[in-house]
Design a protein that fits this description.
This protein is mostly beta strands. The protein has a six-stranded mixed beta sheet with strand order 11-10-13-20-15-18, with no helix packed on it. A six-stranded mixed beta sheet has the order 43-45-41-39-49-50, with no helix packed on it. Strand 34 and strand 35 form a beta hairpin. The longest helix is centred in the first third of the chain and has 16 residues. The radius of gyration is 28 Å and the shape is globular.
């Protein structure tokens, strides 16, 4: 085959640019809608597939942290009908050749695959352009979540979760582009069974969702435990996994779906809703879960009744699915924390945390709080080298105390002195906790619950009464846009002025009258503490050579703070700078311009923005947290925190490749 034909095929089949590309589209920020699998085991090398939009010219993949390398293998843009016509013609030319080289055979296979998987109307155009990359994870890579981004000459995509795991991995074969479903004909769109390779243990590898091995049966994939399994749910699919377990093992099955992709803009309720079920070999259901407390991602735990085979299943709660319905499940006799108490402590003071859960090596944990800044931190416990799930723990500067029972009525109310943070629990369903304090007329008081934002299932209600029982203030929920993926803003907040000298009572209960050892809270009672937090949106900036670009700064004001906040780059790397931007008064959103004197950089550069404000003669400084503005279910928008704020420099010389419609003749 002649060289000219090869180059045209490469242009059409690999670059796959459209014949006509609008200027507006060319300037769109690269978008990554999913990454599959969304992680891998330490010490392994494997391929991932990412689906997105505006990815022409992609040449790099960026993964945060150390120990993970990513290399682009292939980019397949969604084809137009004209592209398909051209590829069919070129495929025919190749097949007519009487002397085909190994290179020709490779091209034939690639073209046949692209034509076979062609979808005229994708279920979601925004994820129909596919990137294939090779991931290499070092043996000593730190386990836990990273961020993965796709890089094009026009900048960086939004980040997606990429997890470095410790367990052997199993992965189903990646889904090709899903077709758009026609109302009333959903059954017609169910794809053929996916072909896969061996169901033997991979670390990681690709398997079929429907194995042909007779000893598995019913389409279940055989796995060994402990392990991690990865898959993508298509419309109407249920995936099943079969494993051996022994009597009295406490098996924990924990799914991540919504955690991997917090918001799917064109799906209701706005995310993948995984459902887990566990059955024995006779089909008896042993455990079922469709939500873990208030979180959409389910967790099962079961004490195995007898030696034998067991099957767990995963599917979407309303049987939806497509490429971005990605899951990652860990299964085994693994440590899992269900509750901690207290939910926080004071900085620079030792604290002993009571831990409850499954397969835990101990019931106490003592984190190091020395020199830590106030804030919320993830903590985990380790057993036999394996980390548990992460739970949240808060640190503050106020005095701390524990709730003391009985305090269920005004007569037995626990007496407190402001300022203070009370660590307590709504111990049983219907429980109420009541606290008494004394105040002066005109004094401003803030009462705030920190519970749901620390992953407690408590849905708090706060009420303030005077000593005669008259209600002074009441609150159920208060929105906190800083809480990211938390869609139920269930933590209560009241800021009020005392009408007279005297005794006042704080009444706290759960809105559904629920309760239990996991229904913990932190109740702050203090004078207002004016403060702020900042979010940078988006979490990356693409700048033209020797030019500037702007990003948005969102101010989250606490306890009535209405002062000016000045924002600028902190410790700017060489070649980058910014003018100071100010959010005045009650202003919540502003722009900040970031400049560069450089023409190019080898890799994305992390930048740090800080905000400064004067409160009562004291300067307060906070770093801005990068975030992505994400849409939920066609309407609501949320700021989802990211790990890094990165800068890239646009390649102004880049010109998108275009597939030529002309016929190519062999010489």
């Amino acid at each position: 085959m002649k060289k000219g034909l090869i180059s045209i095929i490469a242009s059409a089949a690999l670059a796959l640019s459209p014949f006509c590309e609008s200027t507006a589209e060319a300037q769109q920020r690269p978008y990554n809608g999913f990454t599959y699998p969304a992680g891998g085991k330490q010490g392994t090398t494997f391929q991932i597939t990412a689906g997105g939009q505006y990815l022409d010219g992609i040449d790099k993949i960026y993964v945060s942290g150390e120990g993970v390398e990513a290399k682009l293998v292939e980019y397949n843009r969604h084809l137009s009908p004209q592209d398909i016509m051209l590829l069919r013609e070129q495929l025919d030319e190749l097949k007519k050749s009487k002397s085909r080289s190994s290179e020709d055979q490779t091209l034939i296979a690639k073209l046949e695959k692209r034509i076979r998987e062609y979808v005229l109307r994708p279920a979601s155009v925004s994820i129909s352009n596919m990137v294939i990359a090779e991931i290499k994870i070092a043996d000593n890579a730190k386990p836990g979540d990273r961020e993965i981004r796709l890089e094009t000459p026009r900048g960086l995509s939004n980040p997606m979760v990429f997890n470095v795991g410790q367990l052997p991995e199993y992965s189903l074969e990646p889904l090709p582009t899903s077709p758009q479903q026609i109302l009333g004909k959903e059954g017609d769109s169910l794809r053929r069974k996916r072909k896969g390779i061996s169901t033997e243990e991979q670390s990681p590898g690709m398997m079929s969702s429907s194995s042909s091995q007779k000893d598995i049966g019913d389409g279940a994939v055989r796995i060994n435990v402990p392990s991690t399994v990865n898959g993508q749910i298509f419309s109407g699919e249920m995936h099943q996994y079969k494993f051996q377990a022994k009597k009295d093992q406490h098996i924990v099955i924990s799914a991540r779906g919504r955690e991997l992709i917090p918001y799917i803009a064109d799906a209701v309720p706005g995310w993948f809703q995984p459902v887990l079920a566990l059955h024995d070999s006779k089909g008896k259901e042993l455990s079922y879960n469709d939500d873990y407390r208030f979180k959409p991602d389910p967790v099962l735990h079961c004490k195995i009744p007898t030696d034998g085979e067991y099957i767990f299943s995963i599917y979407d709660g309303i049987y939806r699915g497509r490429e971005d319905f990605v899951y990652r499940i860990t299964i085994g006799e693994l440590p899992f924390v269900t509750s901690v108490f207290p939910l926080g402590g004071k900085v620079n003071e030792p604290v002993s945390i009571e831990i409850k859960g499954h397969n835990l090596p101990s019931t106490r944990l003592t984190p190091d709080t020395k020199d830590a800044e106030p804030g919320i931190y993830p903590i985990a416990i380790k057993k036999e080298g394996f980390l548990s799930n992460r739970v949240l723990f808060a640190l503050d500067t106020l005095p701390e105390s524990l709730e003391r029972e009985p305090n269920n009525n005004v007569e037995t109310a626990q007496k407190i002195i402001s300022p203070i943070i009370i660590n307590g629990r709504i111990d049983v369903p219907g429980d109420k906790d009541i606290f008494q304090f004394e105040g002066k007329a005109g004094e401003q008081i803030v009462t705030e619950i920190l519970a749901r934002r620390l992953d407690s299932p408590l849905d708090s209600i706060l009420k303030i009464t005077d000593e005669k029982g008259k209600e002074i203030a009441f609150n159920d929920d208060r929105e906190d846009i800083a809480s990211g993926t938390n869609n139920h803003h269930a933590d209560s907040y009241i800021r009020f002025t005392l009408p007279s000298d005297g005794k006042y009572f704080i009444h706290l209960k759960d809105a559904q009258n629920a309760g239990g050892e996991e229904y913990a809270y932190r109740l702050r009672i203090s004078a207002p503490r004016p403060d702020f937090a900042l979010r940078i949106v988006p979490s990356s900036v693409s700048i033209r050579p020797s030019s500037s670009a702007s990003v948005s700064i969102h101010a989250i004001r606490h306890d009535g703070f209405d002062g000016d906040i000045s924002v600028k780059l902190r410790d700017a790397p060489k070649g980058f700078s910014s003018y100071e931007s100010t959010l005045s008064g009650t202003q919540e959103v502003s722009q900040i311009s970031i400049s560069t004197s450089l023409d190019s950089i080898d890799k994305p550069v992390p930048l740090y923005l800080e905000g400064r404000a004067n409160v009562g003669g004291k300067e307060i400084i906070h770093d801005a947290v990068p975030a992505e503005d994400r849409m939920q279910a066609f309407l609501w928008r949320h700021l989802v925190p990211a790990r890094e704020f990165l800068a890239t420099i646009i390649d102004q010389n880049y010109t998108p490749q275009r597939a030529s419609p002309r016929r190519v003749k062999k010489k």
